[in-house]
Specification:
The protein is mostly helical. 60% of the residues lie in helices and 0% in strands. The chain is built from 13 helices and no strands. It is globular.
Amino acid sequence: MARKSIVGILAKTVPPMVTAGAWRISTTSNAEEFPQADSESARQRLIAALNKLRPNEAAMRAKWIEDEQGWHKLPPRAWPPIQPKANEVPALRALLEAAKCLPAGATMNTPECKQMIFHLASGLIFASVDPTEGFKLYQELGTLGDAEAMVGTAICLLEGLGAEKDDSHGLSWLRQASKEGNAQADFELGTLLFTGGGGLQEDEEAAVALFQRAAEQQHESAMFMLADCLLEGVGCATDHAKAVPLLHAAAMKGHRGARQHLRQLLDGNW
Protein backbone atom coordinates (compact mmCIF):
# COMPACT_ATOMS: atom_id res chain seq x y z
CA MET A 1 0.00 0.00 0.00
CA ALA A 2 1.36 3.41 -0.96
CA ARG A 3 2.11 5.65 1.97
CA LYS A 4 -0.50 8.38 2.47
CA SER A 5 0.47 11.98 3.07
CA ILE A 6 -1.16 14.17 5.72
CA VAL A 7 0.14 17.14 3.75
CA GLY A 8 -1.85 15.94 0.77
CA ILE A 9 -5.00 15.55 2.86
CA LEU A 10 -4.65 19.06 4.27
CA ALA A 11 -3.63 20.62 0.96
CA LYS A 12 -6.92 19.73 -0.69
CA THR A 13 -8.80 21.54 2.07
CA VAL A 14 -7.34 25.01 1.96
CA PRO A 15 -8.28 27.00 -1.14
CA PRO A 16 -8.79 30.76 -0.57
CA MET A 17 -11.91 31.58 1.43
CA VAL A 18 -14.89 32.84 -0.55
CA THR A 19 -18.18 34.44 0.49
CA ALA A 20 -20.82 32.19 0.42
CA GLY A 21 -19.02 15.85 23.20
CA ALA A 22 -18.36 12.63 22.85
CA TRP A 23 -17.72 11.03 19.52
CA ARG A 24 -17.94 7.28 19.89
CA ILE A 25 -17.62 5.71 16.48
CA SER A 26 -17.60 2.29 14.93
CA THR A 27 -14.26 1.09 13.63
CA THR A 28 -15.96 -1.10 11.05
CA SER A 29 -15.12 0.05 7.54
CA ASN A 30 -18.14 0.90 5.41
CA ALA A 31 -17.06 0.23 1.85
CA GLU A 32 -20.52 -0.74 0.56
CA GLU A 33 -23.34 1.65 -0.31
CA PHE A 34 -26.05 2.21 2.30
CA PRO A 35 -29.34 0.49 1.54
CA GLN A 36 -31.85 3.13 0.41
CA ALA A 37 -33.59 3.47 3.80
CA ASP A 38 -30.30 3.74 5.66
CA SER A 39 -29.05 6.25 3.11
CA GLU A 40 -32.11 8.43 3.62
CA SER A 41 -31.73 8.20 7.39
CA ALA A 42 -28.07 9.22 7.12
CA ARG A 43 -29.02 12.16 4.90
CA GLN A 44 -31.65 13.34 7.35
CA ARG A 45 -29.20 13.09 10.25
CA LEU A 46 -26.68 15.16 8.28
CA ILE A 47 -29.31 17.81 7.50
CA ALA A 48 -30.27 17.97 11.18
CA ALA A 49 -26.64 18.38 12.22
CA LEU A 50 -26.08 21.16 9.68
CA ASN A 51 -29.33 22.92 10.61
CA LYS A 52 -27.95 23.48 14.10
CA LEU A 53 -25.30 25.70 12.51
CA ARG A 54 -27.57 27.64 10.16
CA PRO A 55 -28.62 30.44 12.60
CA ASN A 56 -25.00 31.60 12.97
CA GLU A 57 -23.76 30.58 9.53
CA ALA A 58 -23.42 34.09 8.06
CA ALA A 59 -21.42 35.42 11.01
CA MET A 60 -19.29 32.28 11.04
CA ARG A 61 -18.41 32.60 7.36
CA ALA A 62 -17.61 36.31 7.75
CA LYS A 63 -15.22 35.49 10.59
CA TRP A 64 -13.49 32.86 8.46
CA ILE A 65 -12.92 35.36 5.65
CA GLU A 66 -11.54 37.91 8.13
CA ASP A 67 -9.19 35.33 9.65
CA GLU A 68 -7.85 34.38 6.24
CA GLN A 69 -5.99 37.69 6.08
CA GLY A 70 -3.64 36.67 8.89
CA TRP A 71 -2.99 33.06 7.96
CA HIS A 72 0.11 33.85 5.91
CA LYS A 73 1.75 34.68 9.25
CA LEU A 74 1.22 31.24 10.73
CA PRO A 75 4.31 29.11 11.57
CA PRO A 76 4.97 26.10 9.31
CA ARG A 77 3.83 23.67 12.02
CA ALA A 78 0.89 23.93 14.42
CA TRP A 79 2.69 22.51 17.46
CA PRO A 80 3.94 23.75 19.83
CA PRO A 81 1.39 26.58 19.97
CA ILE A 82 4.04 29.03 21.23
CA GLN A 83 7.13 29.15 19.02
CA PRO A 84 9.40 32.03 20.04
CA LYS A 85 11.24 33.79 17.24
CA ALA A 86 15.03 33.87 17.12
CA ASN A 87 15.15 37.46 18.39
CA GLU A 88 13.03 36.47 21.42
CA VAL A 89 15.43 33.80 22.65
CA PRO A 90 17.78 36.20 24.52
CA ALA A 91 14.82 37.65 26.41
CA LEU A 92 13.72 34.14 27.43
CA ARG A 93 17.19 33.40 28.75
CA ALA A 94 17.08 36.66 30.73
CA LEU A 95 13.71 35.73 32.22
CA LEU A 96 15.04 32.35 33.31
CA GLU A 97 18.00 34.01 34.97
CA ALA A 98 15.84 36.65 36.67
CA ALA A 99 13.53 33.95 38.02
CA LYS A 100 16.57 32.05 39.32
CA CYS A 101 15.44 28.94 37.45
CA LEU A 102 17.57 25.83 37.81
CA PRO A 103 18.91 23.79 34.86
CA ALA A 104 16.27 21.86 32.89
CA GLY A 105 17.16 18.54 34.51
CA ALA A 106 16.69 19.83 38.08
CA THR A 107 13.74 18.36 39.95
CA MET A 108 13.18 21.46 42.08
CA ASN A 109 12.23 23.83 39.28
CA THR A 110 8.88 25.58 39.64
CA PRO A 111 6.13 24.92 37.05
CA GLU A 112 6.74 28.45 35.74
CA CYS A 113 10.43 27.74 35.24
CA LYS A 114 9.67 24.46 33.48
CA GLN A 115 7.28 26.29 31.14
CA MET A 116 9.87 28.94 30.31
CA ILE A 117 12.48 26.26 29.64
CA PHE A 118 10.03 24.51 27.32
CA HIS A 119 9.44 27.75 25.39
CA LEU A 120 13.18 28.35 25.20
CA ALA A 121 13.67 24.86 23.76
CA SER A 122 10.93 25.49 21.20
CA GLY A 123 12.58 28.74 20.10
CA LEU A 124 16.00 27.15 19.87
CA ILE A 125 14.67 24.33 17.70
CA PHE A 126 11.95 25.77 15.50
CA ALA A 127 13.60 29.15 14.97
CA SER A 128 16.83 27.28 14.11
CA VAL A 129 18.85 29.10 16.77
CA ASP A 130 20.46 26.03 18.37
CA PRO A 131 18.42 22.86 17.76
CA THR A 132 20.96 20.70 19.60
CA GLU A 133 20.58 22.69 22.82
CA GLY A 134 16.80 22.78 22.34
CA PHE A 135 16.63 19.02 21.96
CA LYS A 136 18.66 18.56 25.13
CA LEU A 137 16.27 20.83 27.06
CA TYR A 138 13.21 18.92 25.77
CA GLN A 139 14.84 15.61 26.67
CA GLU A 140 15.76 16.72 30.20
CA LEU A 141 12.25 17.99 30.86
CA GLY A 142 10.76 14.83 29.35
CA THR A 143 12.91 12.61 31.54
CA LEU A 144 11.35 14.34 34.55
CA GLY A 145 7.86 13.42 33.31
CA ASP A 146 6.79 16.48 31.31
CA ALA A 147 4.52 14.96 28.66
CA GLU A 148 4.70 17.94 26.28
CA ALA A 149 8.50 17.76 26.42
CA MET A 150 8.27 14.03 25.70
CA VAL A 151 6.40 14.92 22.52
CA GLY A 152 9.02 17.54 21.65
CA THR A 153 11.78 15.00 22.18
CA ALA A 154 9.94 12.50 19.98
CA ILE A 155 9.44 15.00 17.16
CA CYS A 156 13.12 15.92 17.23
CA LEU A 157 14.14 12.26 16.99
CA LEU A 158 11.58 11.43 14.31
CA GLU A 159 12.51 14.44 12.19
CA GLY A 160 16.20 14.72 13.00
CA LEU A 161 15.95 18.14 14.64
CA GLY A 162 18.93 18.77 16.90
CA ALA A 163 19.61 15.05 17.12
CA GLU A 164 20.28 12.15 14.79
CA LYS A 165 17.07 10.79 13.30
CA ASP A 166 15.94 7.77 15.32
CA ASP A 167 12.44 6.44 14.64
CA SER A 168 12.60 3.74 17.31
CA HIS A 169 13.49 6.07 20.17
CA GLY A 170 11.16 8.74 18.83
CA LEU A 171 8.23 6.32 18.87
CA SER A 172 9.17 5.23 22.38
CA TRP A 173 8.93 8.82 23.62
CA LEU A 174 5.60 9.32 21.82
CA ARG A 175 4.11 6.15 23.29
CA GLN A 176 5.25 7.20 26.76
CA ALA A 177 3.53 10.59 26.37
CA SER A 178 0.44 8.88 24.97
CA LYS A 179 0.26 6.68 28.07
CA GLU A 180 0.27 9.91 30.09
CA GLY A 181 -2.88 10.93 28.21
CA ASN A 182 -1.23 13.67 26.16
CA ALA A 183 -3.46 14.70 23.25
CA GLN A 184 -0.60 15.86 21.03
CA ALA A 185 1.15 12.53 21.48
CA ASP A 186 -2.04 10.71 20.46
CA PHE A 187 -2.36 12.92 17.40
CA GLU A 188 1.28 12.50 16.36
CA LEU A 189 1.17 8.74 16.86
CA GLY A 190 -2.17 8.52 15.06
CA THR A 191 -0.73 10.46 12.14
CA LEU A 192 2.23 8.10 11.88
CA LEU A 193 -0.11 5.09 11.90
CA PHE A 194 -2.39 6.73 9.34
CA THR A 195 0.44 7.52 6.93
CA GLY A 196 2.76 4.62 7.66
CA GLY A 197 5.43 7.01 8.92
CA GLY A 198 8.17 6.45 11.48
CA GLY A 199 8.72 2.93 10.23
CA LEU A 200 5.19 1.87 11.24
CA GLN A 201 2.78 -0.15 9.14
CA GLU A 202 -0.36 1.73 8.11
CA ASP A 203 -3.20 0.97 10.53
CA GLU A 204 -6.17 3.22 9.84
CA GLU A 205 -8.39 1.80 12.60
CA ALA A 206 -5.68 2.28 15.24
CA ALA A 207 -5.09 5.81 13.91
CA VAL A 208 -8.78 6.64 14.19
CA ALA A 209 -8.83 5.40 17.79
CA LEU A 210 -5.96 7.74 18.64
CA PHE A 211 -7.53 10.67 16.78
CA GLN A 212 -10.69 10.02 18.77
CA ARG A 213 -8.82 10.05 22.09
CA ALA A 214 -7.17 13.35 21.22
CA ALA A 215 -10.43 14.79 19.88
CA GLU A 216 -12.09 14.11 23.21
CA GLN A 217 -9.54 16.57 24.65
CA GLN A 218 -10.56 19.16 22.03
CA HIS A 219 -7.35 18.77 20.03
CA GLU A 220 -8.27 20.68 16.87
CA SER A 221 -6.15 18.77 14.35
CA ALA A 222 -7.33 15.45 15.79
CA MET A 223 -10.94 16.59 15.53
CA PHE A 224 -10.32 17.43 11.90
CA MET A 225 -8.65 14.12 11.11
CA LEU A 226 -11.37 12.13 12.89
CA ALA A 227 -14.02 14.07 10.97
CA ASP A 228 -12.19 13.50 7.69
CA CYS A 229 -12.10 9.76 8.40
CA LEU A 230 -15.84 9.79 9.19
CA LEU A 231 -16.57 11.64 5.97
CA GLU A 232 -14.50 9.25 3.86
CA GLY A 233 -15.18 6.01 5.76
CA VAL A 234 -11.45 5.48 6.35
CA GLY A 235 -10.70 3.36 9.43
CA CYS A 236 -14.32 3.64 10.54
CA ALA A 237 -17.86 3.60 9.21
CA THR A 238 -18.91 6.59 7.13
CA ASP A 239 -20.96 9.01 9.22
CA HIS A 240 -21.28 12.55 7.87
CA ALA A 241 -23.56 13.68 10.69
CA LYS A 242 -21.01 12.75 13.36
CA ALA A 243 -18.34 14.62 11.43
CA VAL A 244 -20.23 17.93 11.57
CA PRO A 245 -19.80 18.79 15.29
CA LEU A 246 -16.16 17.73 15.10
CA LEU A 247 -15.55 20.02 12.13
CA HIS A 248 -17.43 22.86 13.81
CA ALA A 249 -15.42 22.53 17.02
CA ALA A 250 -12.13 22.48 15.09
CA ALA A 251 -13.26 25.36 12.87
CA MET A 252 -14.08 27.48 15.91
CA LYS A 253 -10.52 26.88 17.13
CA GLY A 254 -9.26 28.20 13.79
CA HIS A 255 -8.54 24.99 11.88
CA ARG A 256 -8.45 25.97 8.22
CA GLY A 257 -9.15 22.54 6.76
CA ALA A 258 -12.12 22.05 9.09
CA ARG A 259 -13.59 25.34 7.89
CA GLN A 260 -13.25 24.30 4.26
CA HIS A 261 -14.84 20.88 4.87
CA LEU A 262 -17.68 22.45 6.81
CA ARG A 263 -18.31 25.06 4.15
CA GLN A 264 -18.53 22.33 1.50
CA LEU A 265 -21.06 20.41 3.63
CA LEU A 266 -23.12 23.54 4.27
CA ASP A 267 -23.10 24.30 0.53
CA GLY A 268 -24.14 20.75 -0.33
CA ASN A 269 -20.93 20.18 -2.28
CA TRP A 270 -19.49 17.18 -0.43
